[in-house]
Write a structure and sequence with these properties.
Number of domains: 2
CATH class of the largest domain: Alpha Beta
Order of helices and strands: HHHEHEEHE
Shape: elongated
CATH superfamily of the largest domain: Lrp/AsnC effector binding domain/regulation of amino acid metabolism (RAM) domain
Largest sheet: 4 strands, antiparallel
Strand order of the largest sheet: 2-3-1-4
Length: 156
């Protein structure tokens, strides 16, 4: 479902993307609106699934997760059963933080964060052991830009 976002919606969501810990009162004050109107809008965004959660963004290297890897997965198996088992396995591996089903010659793109190459090797062996697929990996040498902020624009 695509939601029509007005300028005030964009302003509230942009403030929350910058700092989700800001109070409703502070947001309302910044936008010259009532606290209750601001609160109702935020609740609406949560109910609509626009706001999926509020959390802290951590620096991986500061929590012993300095190796980021993008794992390319290709498979000849595309049955619902295989896909369900593959997804279930991925859910058991906390080092995997993103999984995307792709178009083109790549079936899945998986992002994982790990402490070191030995832990990547463990992850690789777990993935290879249970599912027939071709796996290749690209390791991040340096992150030049990363953000969780979406580029919001008014739709009406």
């Amino acid at each position: 479902m695509n939601t029509q976002l007005k300028r005030q919606d964009i302003q509230i969501l942009s403030i929350l993307q910058e700092d989700a810990s800001i109070s409703v009162e502070a947001i309302a004050e910044k936008l010259a609106m009532s606290k209750s109107a601001c609160w109702r809008r935020i609740k609406k965004y949560e109910e609509l699934g626009i706001i999926r959660g509020r959390f802290a963004v951590l620096e991986p290297s500061k929590v012993n997760l300095s190796l980021t890897v993008y794992i390319s997965v290709r498979t000849q198996e595309h049955s619902d059963d295989w896909r369900s088992k593959f997804i279930a396995q991925l859910e058991t591996l906390p080092e995997i933080i993103e999984v995307h089903r792709m178009s083109g010659d790549l079936d899945y793109l998986v992002k994982a964060v790990l402490p070191d190459m030995a832990r990547y090797d463990d992850l690789y062996l777990k993935l290879c052991k249970t599912h027939p697929m071709d796996i290749s990996a690209a390791f991040v040498m340096k992150t030049l830009r990363a953000t969780t902020k979406l580029p919001l624009r008014p739709t009406s």
